[in-house]
Amino acid sequence: VGYLTPVSRDTMGSLLAAGLSSAGVVLLAPRRQEPTSLAMVSVEDGMPSYQFYRERTAERMVTPDSLNSIAPSYATGLVLGSLALTGGVDADIWANFFCTKHA
């Protein structure tokens, strides 16, 4: 299993990278200087609310060329998390990459 999304070199990114590697996942993208995305959940009166901090983070640093250069030609499947498709230039890049690979 390969992981196409760039991972930060910060502490959170290192924890993520270590967990993925220990599970046998190969990090295919180069590690990045940008920070790791952060998702915060707070609960008030039993109702959760969510905040996502994703601007200028490592995971969003994808280009068509970077994805095409690291995607294995032998790959038979591609899984996208919903957060990757929630807006921004990177969401369009992921959607186009997926459609191109599955056309």
What this model shows, in words?
It is a single chain. The strands form two sheets. A two-stranded parallel ribbon has the order 1-2. A two-stranded antiparallel ribbon has the order 3-4. It is globular, with a radius of gyration of 15 Å. The protein has three helices and four strands, in the order βαβββαα. The longest helix is centred in the last third of the chain and has 13 residues, at 89-101. The model has no long low-confidence stretch (mean pLDDT 93). It is of the alpha+beta class and 103 residues long.
Helix/strand-derived category reads alpha+beta
Q: Tally of extended strands?
A: 4
- Described by the principal axes of the CA atoms, the overall outline is globular
Question: How do the strands of the widest beta sheet line up side by side?
Answer: 1-2
Biggest beta sheet summary: 2 strands, parallel
Features:
single chain, 103 residues, alpha+beta, two-stranded parallel sheet, two-stranded antiparallel ribbon, 3 helices, globular
Short description:
The protein has 103 residues and is of the alpha+beta class. It has three helices and four strands, in the order βαβββαα.
Helix and strand topology:
Elements: E1 2-3, H1 11-22, E2 26-27, E3 38-44, E4 47-53, H2 64-70, H3 89-101
Parallel strand pairs: 1-2
Antiparallel strand pairs: 3-4
